[in-house]
């Protein structure tokens, strides 16, 4: 059964349309929701929690109608907001116990679940200290813990890696994978970094301007969008030789799709392992040095550039603002 | 002895195994939103007195409780000692005299209940749970009303118990203690409502504290001065209308009117029409602040 289905879901604010006839189906697992800032992600989450009415269309979460069964949905769903939401003067334990009780857990169960879940997200002795002294990574763990403490069937994680350093980011992504793999809880995670979600999610939904751009398994998405960046040296003693043009010609001849990137970098579409061989051969035949050969992590904007060249980014910030009201 | 010689045996009891402490699902009960609302009420009420918080946050509310109760204790002790047979101050009047204590307590603690959640943006976490915004407001409002009621009831209790210990007129003291309790309820409703409404407008605790204290102190100052001037110039009839400007005076006059108590100095008991107007103002303030709070949190 799909955990989330939306049908023609539309949300209009006085000045901006945040969601525009969005029809999408999310299956159990880890699903990424990708969109630039103001693409409508936060608005969608708010509607899914039954906290804001849709202007048009319907949505169901865990088979429950968001318009009429909001309370039942919020009992079964956990939510981790993008922004800070932790009071600094209480300890993680006190805070998560309080939130567990707000979800209807009896006092004893709230304490037990809190101890369990804080251990699972990797908070140990520090959980008795006031949250004010925590690092960003630890705070994100507390935010995740409060979303999981009542053992939901689905968690909505809004930009959980925001503000984290690369190591913290990897830890958080690993934790998100565990939430599904070990805890058996479905995850909807939003991000504006596609590369991040490629590593974490089974399925990725891309929205822009409140419209569905793409909904496909991560494997499909990666295969279709992977690129290799290639950079080579000048040919020694022959500065006038345009090595980039020559390389491009050779690679195109070999049946590859090549486009120039900034500077001396060429982007080659990575359709299979034989692409590496073709590049190696071409570079060797030209007698130049290979400076760079790397797989590119896509920023979401590149997907937009391919899929929706006409989409302009105008008024997106307004939508985001309106969504936070 | 032979048992010990037999060496280590494999555990026979099936419970003697190391449990896998992986993720465990919660199978227990999930209680209603009424339970969550009650929990929020309890934790907010405790928070209003700094209980369950750092030592620092207990100082002010506890100091206010002491300042509120201490004069009553001294008064009772002296009355008993000199065997006066009567308390020098009537129950409701005591609360009027110490209305600044109630004001400071409300100003300091109403923002603790609301501004914190706004400032640290905790509010969305509550509303992502079955709890609705009305439940949240109801719990916070009830907690603040209870806190102010506890603060104002305490000296009433001290005076009443003291009156019994000093074998003072039981009937008179019971009756006037009841008047004091009515006044305490009115203080609780009006002060908590006004305090929370102002606190809900700002995520900055300092602003909230300053605005609430300003409302109570300025209105007391202005009303007191105006009333004094009218009293001195012989406009006693219009002096009592001035009491409408300050919640403390309003309660003082209305309670006096309701129970036929005498008032002191420039304070005046309203006429029947005045009394009804005063009562109406109090109902409007209590209901109005609550309704505005509900509206304030409807759209988050």
Task: Provide a descriptive summary of the structure in words.
Chain A is built from twelve helices and 14 strands. With 325 residues, chain A is of the alpha/beta class. In chain A, a hairpin with a 2-residue loop joins strand 4 and strand 5. Chain A is elongated and about 80 Å long. Chain A starts with a strand and ends with a helix. The model of chain A is unreliable at 307-325 (pLDDT under 50). By secondary structure, chain B is mainly α. Chain B has one domain (33-298). Chain B is 72% helix and 0% strand. In chain B, helix 3 runs parallel beside helix 7 (133-165). The termini of chain B are far apart. At the A-B interface, helix 2, strand 6, helix 3 and helix 4 of A face helix 2 and helix 6 of B.
Q: Could you give a quick summary of the protein structure above?
A:
The complex is a heterodimer of chains A (325) and B (300). With 325 residues, chain A is of the alpha/beta class.
Task: Draw up the topology in text.
The complex is a heterodimer of chains A (325) and B (300).
Chain A: E1 4-12, E2 17-26, E3 30-34, H1 41-48, E4 56-61, E5 64-65, H2 70-76, E6 77-80, H3 92-102, H4 107-120, H5 136-148, E7 154-158, H6 166-181, E8 186-191, H7 194-200, E9 203-208, E10 211-217, H8 218-225, E11 227-232, H9 243-253, E12 258-260, E13 265-269, H10 274-286, E14 290-296, H11 300-307, H12 316-323
Parallel strand pairs in A: 3-8, 3-9, 6-7, 7-8
Antiparallel strand pairs in A: 1-2, 1-4, 4-5, 9-10, 11-13, 11-14, 12-13
Helix pairs in contact in A: 3-4, 4-5, 6-7, 9-10
Chain B: H1 2-5, H2 33-48, H3 55-81, H4 91-97, H5 99-119, H6 123-127, H7 133-165, H8 170-199, H9 205-232, H10 236-239, H11 247-259, H12 272-298
Helix pairs in contact in B: 2-7, 3-5, 3-7, 4-7, 4-8, 4-11, 5-7, 5-8, 5-9, 7-8, 7-12, 8-9, 8-11, 8-12, 11-12
Domain ABC transporter (chain A): 4-234
InterPro entries (chain A): AAA+_ATPase, ABC_transporter-like_ATP-bd, P-loop_NTPase
Keywords (chain A): ATP-binding, Nucleotide-binding, Transport
């Amino acid at each position: 059964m799909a955990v989330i289905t939306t049908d023609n879901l539309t949300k209009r604010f006085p000045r901006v349309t945040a969601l525009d006839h969005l029809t999408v189906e999310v299956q159990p697992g880890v699903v990424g929701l990708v969109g630039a800032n103001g693409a409508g992600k936060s608005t969608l989450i708010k509607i899914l929690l039954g906290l804001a009415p849709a202007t048009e269309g319907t949505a169901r979460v865990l088979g429950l109608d968001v318009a009429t069964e909001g309370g039942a949905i919020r009992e079964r769903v956990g939510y981790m907001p993008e922004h800070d939401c932790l009071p600094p003067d209480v300890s993680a334990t006190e805070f998560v116990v309080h939130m567990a009780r707000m979800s209807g857990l009896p006092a004893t169960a709230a304490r037990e679940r809190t101890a369990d879940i804080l251990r699972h997200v990797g908070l140990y002795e520090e959980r008795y200290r006031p949250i004010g002294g925590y690092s960003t990574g630890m705070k994100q763990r507390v935010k995740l813990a409060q979303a999981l403490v009542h053992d939901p069937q689905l968690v909505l994680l809004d930009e959980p890696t925001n503000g984290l350093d690369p190591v913290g980011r990897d830890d958080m992504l690993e934790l998100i994978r565990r939430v599904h793999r070990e805890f058996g809880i479905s995850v909807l995670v939003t991000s504006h970094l596609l590369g991040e979600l490629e590593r974490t999610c089974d399925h990725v939904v891309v929205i822009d301007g409140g419209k569905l751009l793409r909904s496909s398994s991560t494997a499909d998405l990666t295969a279709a969008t992977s690129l290799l960046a290639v950079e080579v040296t000048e040919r020694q003693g022959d500065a006038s030789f345009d090595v980039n043009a020559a390389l491009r010609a050779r690679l195109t001849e070999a049946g590859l799709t090549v486009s120039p990137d900034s500077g001396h970098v060429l982007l080659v579409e990575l359709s299979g392992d034989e692409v590496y061989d073709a590049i190696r051969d071409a570079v060797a035949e030209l007698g130049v040095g290979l400076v760079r050969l790397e797989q590119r992590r896509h920023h979401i904007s590149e997907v937009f550039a391919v899929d929706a060249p006409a989409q302009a980014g105008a008024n997106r910030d307004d939508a985001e603002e309106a969504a936070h009201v | 002895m032979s048992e010990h010689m037999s060496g280590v045996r494999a555990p026979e009891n099936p419970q003697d195994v190391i449990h896998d402490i992986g993720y465990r699902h919660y199978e227990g009960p999930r209680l209603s939103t009424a339970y969550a609302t009650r929990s929020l009420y309890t934790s907010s009420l405790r928070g209003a007195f700094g209980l369950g918080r750092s030592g620092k946050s207990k100082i002010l509310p506890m100091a206010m409780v002491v300042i509120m109760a201490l004069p009553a204790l001294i008064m009772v002790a002296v009355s008993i000692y000199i065997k006066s047979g009567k308390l020098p101050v009537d129950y409701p009047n005591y609360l009027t005299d110490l209305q600044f204590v109630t004001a400071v307590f409300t100003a300091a603690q109403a923002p603790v209940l609301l501004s914190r959640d706004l400032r640290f943006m905790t509010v969305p976490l509550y509303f992502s749970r079955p709890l609705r915004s009305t439940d949240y407001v109801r719990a916070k409002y009830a907690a603040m009303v209870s806190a102010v009621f506890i603060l104002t009831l305490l000296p009433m209790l001290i005076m009443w118990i003291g009156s019994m210990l000093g074998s003072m007129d039981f009937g008179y003291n019971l009756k006037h203690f009841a008047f004091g309790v009515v006044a305490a309820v009115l203080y609780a409703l009006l002060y908590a409502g006004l305090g929370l409404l102002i606190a809900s407008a700002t995520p900055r605790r300092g602003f909230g504290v300053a605005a609430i204290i300003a409302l109570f102190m300025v209105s007391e100052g202005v009303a007191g001065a105006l009333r004094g001037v009218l009293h001195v110039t012989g406009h006693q009839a219009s002096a009592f209308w001035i009491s409408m400007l300050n919640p403390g005076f309003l309660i003082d006059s209305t309670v006096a009117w309701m129970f036929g108590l005498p008032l002191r100095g420039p304070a005046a008991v309203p006429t029947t029409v005045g009394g009804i107007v005063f009562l109406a103002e109090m109902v409007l303030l209590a209901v109005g602040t609550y309704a505005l709070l509900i509206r304030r949190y409807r759209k988050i």
